[in-house]
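Protein modeling request. Please complete all fields; requests missing the sequence field cannot be processed.
Requester role: graduate student
Desired output: 3D structure, token encoding
Chains: 1
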Amino acid sequence: MRVTILIACCVLVISGLAISAPMPPQEKAKPKKEKFGALAYLPSGAGPAMVGAGARANVDLFVNAYTNDEDAKRMASVLVEAGPNALLKVLEKAKSIGKITLTGRVGFYDLKLIRSHRTPTGRRIYAVGDRPIGFLEVYAGNRSQDYPFGILQVDLKTKENGKEEGEGALIYSAKIKVLEGNNIDVESYGIAPIRLMAVRKL
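Delivered output (202 residues):
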């Protein structure tokens, strides 16, 4: 399933590859660490990876640091010049700078590339990580192993009281392809993105 809702944004966060759509500059003067809460709606067919298909779950998003322009451009070059597998290796070796967890539980998803930039109504946060692949998935030789990336987008609006609230989406299992002209195709493994509603800064 190709996910058009996130493709343009993912292009920017991963690389800013298209000449007509350069990578937005990293937002300045951000807190070093941030935490957000959200309600995640799991699509039908998501399976038991979190708490069961069609269920809702409270999740927390932790941002310990943001990727600077230099490192983001370096990852962009890797993707364009050497392809998605090379980018995956870079992410696997990279230090985790954020994570998504089910509220009250340990682990779930580490994020290796996180960007933030201003929008007319607030800001947008993008993140990319190498997806954790379980033992049973490897043992079964599941086709999902060909979808090793996780891609997150959160759109936040700044309220009159200064608080940030919004919504977003997480592509849990994604495949990234570099097409002719350095365009990017993002494909989700069989299911729609996990919707993140009522996102708010904690």
